[in-house]
Amino acid sequence: MARDKRNEEKERGIIRELLGWLLYILIIIGLTYVIITFVGQRTRVSGSSMETTLSDGDNLIVDKLTYRFREPKRYDIIVFPYQYEENTYYIKRIIGLPGETVQVIDGYVYIDGNLLDSDIYGAEVMNSPGIAAEPITLGDDEYFVLGDNRNHSSDSRDPSVGVLKRKNLVGRAWVRIYPFDEMGVIKHE
Fold first, then answer.
1. Rounded distance, CA 54 to CA 176, Å?
2. Could you identify which of 30, 49, 71, 179 might form a hypothetical disulfide with 153, taking C-beta atoms 3.0 to 4.6 angstroms apart as the criterion?
3. What digits encode the pLDDT tens for the residues 105-132?
4. pLDDT at position 104, please?
């Protein structure tokens, strides 16, 4: 009788221990989901469109939280999904903001008819204005983006990218985590 009681208590202890571990694992999975969905995500730079700011192979953490509390700003480096290829994300710099008219004339960006002379990020004068040869007026929730390596970038000048809607912005490039010698917070302005 005493043995049965001890075995029964031992079994309950094992079941309690297993339920405790199961609860712990479920909490970890839940927290991971919340962080990846709402706070941050790791992404890898592929290609040279953002050189010299970001290089091919750089690993970044994308801040998905900031734009829940404030609007994107000019020169923010953002991540967004490429609409024609699943699980492909682009990294570009915001140049045109909602309500502005953007045009590329003689290789330079004009906002509302004025030269954007504070644009120090473009590596070179643009060879092709693409669809921005004609003025593009952005809607209330639209953004015009360019890569820093302008002549080697598929960006808002390319019809396959075009202007971005606010809802398509995954987040803002926040921290470079690799390569280790360049690790740190990414400067946007």
1. 9
2. 49
3. 999 999 999 999 888 888 689 999 999 9
4. 96
Question: Residues 175, 66: contact at Cβ < 8 Å?
Answer: no
Backbone angles phi, psi at 105, to 5 degrees: -125, 125
Report the C-alpha gap between 109 and 126 in whole angstroms.
9
Catalytic residue (choose from 5, 10, 46, 49): 49
Q: Report which DSSP code applies to 52.
A: T
Residue type, 105: I
Residue in the structure block whose two tokens are 């890569």: 147
Active site residue 167: no
**Among this protein's residues, is 46 annotated catalytic?**
no
pLDDT below 50 — which residues of the chain?
A: none
Cross-strand partners of 43? 60
pLDDT of amino acid 35: 66
Point out the catalytic residue in the list 5, 55, 64, 92.
92
Global pTM reads 0.79
Which residue, 102, 163, 92, is CA-closest to 129?
102
- CA-nearest of 138, 141, 155 to 80 is 155
